[in-house]
Amino acid sequence: xxxxxxxxxxxxxxxxxxxxxxxxxxxxxxxxxxxxxxxxxxxxxxxxxxxxxxxxxxxxxxxxxxxxxxxxxxxxxxxxxxxxxxxxxxxxxxxxxxxxxxxxxxxxxxxxxxxxxxxxxxxxxxxxxxxxxxxxxxxxxxxxxxxxxxxxxxxxxxxxxxxxxxxxxxxxxxxxxxxxxxxxxxxxxxxxxxxxxxxxxxxxxxxxxxxxxxxxxxxxxxxxxxxxxxxxxxxxxxxxxxxxxxxxxxxxxxxxxxxxxxxxxxxxxxxxxxxxxxxxxxxxxxxxxxxxxxxxxxxxxxxxxxxxxxxxxxxxxxxxxxxxxxxxxxxxxxxxxxxxxxxxxxxxxxxxxxxxxxxxxxxxxxxxxxxxxxxxxxxxxxxxxxxxxxxxxxxxxxxxxxxxxxxxxxxxxxxxxxxxxxxxxxxxxxxxxxxxxxxxxxxxxxxxxxxxxxxxxxxxxxxxxxxxxxxxxxxxxxxxxxxxxxxxxxxxxxxxxxxxxxxxxxxxxxxxxxxxxxxxxxxxxxxxxxxxxxxxxxxxxxxxxxxxxxxxxxxxxxxxxxxxxxxxxxxxxxxxxxxxxxxxxxxxxxxxxxxxxxxxxxxxxxxxxxxxxxxxxxx
Length: 619
Known about the structure:
Distance between the termini: 87 Å
Strand order of the largest sheet: 4-1-7-8
Shape: globular
Order of helices and strands: HEEEEEEEEHHHHEEHHHHHHHHHHHHHH
Domain Heparan-alpha-glucosaminide N-acetyltransferase catalytic: 223-344
InterPro entries: HGSNAT_cat
Number of strands: 10
Protein name: Heparan-alpha-glucosaminide N-acetyltransferase
Keywords: Membrane, Transmembrane, Transmembrane helix
Largest sheet: 4 strands, mixed
Radius of gyration: 30 Å
Pfam family, one: HGSNAT_cat
Strand content: 5-15%
């Protein structure tokens, strides 16, 4: 093109056209990236070939590809058509490119994008002896390290732990002259600490009961700090993930099969609730409380838990003023209330005095913690048989019998409305779709559109099984009191036994086993896996906290003593300052993580202050 210097108007017009084209191109490339996203520029150098780009996550099992973007054909050689789109950086991505008109696959590739990275996907013909189409990913701008804030937070926490331990060591050196007397009086110190714990041990299986008293012969009351510590660990992780967990995917619930950190805490809480049920009930009966009166207390506590869950801690408040039309009936506290009632009544009906130390000489003494509760075990096995029968044999309209999938786009989109199979069907049939959780985790990857409640009716059966396994842990602690080796041996045996069951059910696979680990379903493999972990944690905590006294359980012990208050409080005050504030950058993991850690730490501080003032909320 020859530019006429005598025509400044034409020159200005030309520059205007070029600048307009460049602005349109820049605008086309500009995408407002959100957290856990990367920018992908797709360069189509193919002449006469429009492209449709499809996307799928590697974590989405047997899912339909979703249309990501359409890219028009290149108008002339060397001038590719460009389309910009944001892609997920949480997991690996599978990209499929098809010719739009022919629906013919051009190429397919897998790639793990980094957060806020800038990438180009170059689609072009190459000549290397054979004419073929190449699809190559090029990094334009490096992504950020989105996990760096977690690493920094972990190192800071580790440094604090080391600093505290070192400070205690220095203090012990300052008191060197008295260390012998302190060692001699350590048992008396522990007795004074335990004697100050008072009423929480006697009252609330959820709020912190772990007294050990033999039912029959009188014994000095002791408190197992490992039980409260374990409860506190589960509760604090629960508070942290409920507040957002820094918006990291591994601090959120799994979309369907598999485990994340968020999937661990609720079953552990149920497990330790079962341990507390046995320990508190034994202590109460030993003090002479009648079974009928205790039954009334159990029923009242269960009613209060269910009422708190429905009226106070109800996520459907986010839909506006709560009404019966949109009231979520299932929930965390509701499930705890039902589970507590069934397991506590079961133990109450078949309660027996704890055998004395002479019982160890009797026949089959090594199994007395199991044989003494054979009626309860029969009931639990019957319950599990009901779960298996309904899950795998109940006909569900429009769905394959025994379906355990997420529905939506899973299973190649064949069963979009079958989320949860029998579990979802029973809840929708008995409770109604409007009374269930409206934002299940399966909607994230699997795009499910039907309501599904992870705390539904059928899953409650397996939460009862989980709590009863916790009862078994409490029974071991009480039946083999002062026999550390016997306790640790049984914790090890149970952990290995339940772990082997999980291996058999899952084939050590996320999706390929006969019964995958699934928090939404509360599958039996989920229960056995988390119970195996729970026995292992007690295996570590019991000798560390209660036998050797190497750790007092701080800071988890304090929220473990006031668990109901901390749980309800963190739900009610979630949106209030100082638990939440306006962030400078709402798309920053660092800012969210800081906010969530501060909010969680505040609840630990509140629990500590209440413990020091001997204030415990019990029902």
